[in-house]
Amino acid sequence: MTNIQKVLTSRFGSLEIDVVQAGQAEPGVTREQLGEMLEYANPAISIGNIHNRNRDRLDPFSVLIKMINADGKSYDTYVYGFKGILEVCRFSNQPNAHAVMDWAWETLDRIRKGDGVVKPTGMALVQEAMQFLIAENTAKDKVIENQQLKIAADAPKVDFAGKVGDCTEGFGVRELALKFRQNGADCELLFIDDLLKEKATSGELTEADIKHLFAVIDTRYDFMRPTIITTECTSGRLESLNPAIYYRMAERAYAEIIFEGEENNYRKRL
């Protein structure tokens, strides 16, 4: 059954009108009270007849609810929101329809200014507390789920970093690309030391090497991930080897640091 709560009580002439709210619908008045305000001899029946003749207009602005009589028996009735009240008044042709419309606008203004505040009580309060707890637990579950997903996503990167860190020997372009694809294509930071060492100057660089290196550089380029590269190749040499690779490196480069001269060879200073 829809939970009914009183928002406020307002006078209309000699009548005391209870503005109620049915569930999440907007506040309004019952069919009986609206008929009394319009001074019908049979309030509920008269408003029901108007509703039946104009369902296309009134169904969107009304809510069917169950009310309890003084004898404990339930009956169906409607609560009309403020647009519903205005529509009923328009179709009623009653002499005081304009007065009811004025009351509706004044009451709506009072509610907008906070004069009527729906305060949950009884089962409504319990339901609100349960909804809050469910939402809170759902949020916590989401945080845990996101943490687990992050751990799962980072696992290959950690494994990749460990394999590279434990490596005591250099590996070629093909091996670099293979490890890269398997373990850390979008790792936060990739460090490539001595890129194309010897191969670029000895003439041993093959089309396959270029293809594998392009895959690594292009992936870093697409992911916009930082990459630190040391190489004995000059910018001109890299560009001549493969412009596509060089321009991707150059476009993403934060800085290009060049060391020239034997005095910068730290091995000769040992």
Overall pLDDT score = 75
Identify the strand order in the major beta sheet.
3-5-4
Regions with little confidence, pLDDT below 50 for 5+ residues? 117-123, 160-171
Largest sheet: 3 strands, antiparallel
Share in β-strands: 15-25%
H-E string: EEEHHHEEHHHHEHHEHH
Number of helices: 11
Q: How many extended strands?
A: 7
The computed structural class is alpha+beta
Characterize the overall form: rod-shaped
Give the domain tally: 2
Task: List strands and helices in order, with pairings.
Blueprint: E1 4-12, E2 15-22, E3 28-30, H1 31-37, H2 43-53, H3 55-58, E4 62-68, E5 74-81, H4 82-92, H5 97-112, H6 122-166, H7 173-183, E6 190-195, H8 199-202, H9 207-223, E7 227-231, H10 235-241, H11 243-252
Parallel strand pairs: 6-7
Antiparallel strand pairs: 1-2, 3-5, 4-5
Provide keyphrases for this structure.
270 residues; single chain; 17% strand; 11 helices; alpha+beta; 2 domains; rod-shaped
